[in-house]
TrEMBL record:
InterPro entries: Homeodomain-like_sf, HTH-type_TetR-like_transc_reg, HTH_TetR, Tet_transcr_reg_TetR-rel_C_sf, TetR_CgmR_C
Descriptive protein name: TetR/AcrR family transcriptional regulator
DNA-binding region(s), chain positions: 35-54
Pfam families per record: TetR_C_28, TetR_N
Transcription regulation among keywords: yes
GO molecular function, one term: DNA-binding transcription factor activity
Organism: Chitinophaga fulva
Assigned keywords, A-Z: DNA-binding, Transcription, Transcription regulation
SUPFAM superfamilies linked: Homeodomain-like, Tetracyclin repressor-like, C-terminal domain
Domain HTH tetR-type span(s) in chain numbering: 12-72
Leader sequence segment: none
Amino acid sequence: MENAYKRKKEPELNKQLILDAATEIGAAGDWHDVTFQAIADRTGLSKGGIIHHFKNKDELLDELMRRSLAGLTEWMKVFNEEIGSGDKAYGYLKFVIDKGNDQSYQQLMRLVIKALLASPQYRKWWEDWYVENIMPPDGTEPNIHGLIMLLVADGIWYSEGFGFSVVNDETKQRILKYLKR
């Protein structure tokens, strides 16, 4: 069978194509559904072309997780600058509520949640990311109000990531208004 794909000398584009396909496959199915064959089928690249960029599945999944966390970091940074809040807990809650309808965010969250369930290594990466980006900068625990906001944000985040959220947009906005100081 002839592969219709003609190799292009655009390695970064091909790498991004592979990562995008892996994200879509992982978010739609199971973390273990991300295989070189599934990516090849989706992209038209050969498995050898994929191996050229990622020597094995672990290397690919590590890169997906690194990019996912970097993307979340950028989103959080931009979002906190927009709202001008020094309160990370409130910023995180507002971020989760406001990004909830963004398709790329939802896809990324589904992938990250599945990765966290599949790997102790990724849970450690997430913990480190969370401490650095969400918790108070001085290393202390947030005050009780901040802790409640973090727990609410995480609850919304996880329920939407698993696809069983029962909180509509209007209710989320009411929660945000209620918890805002």
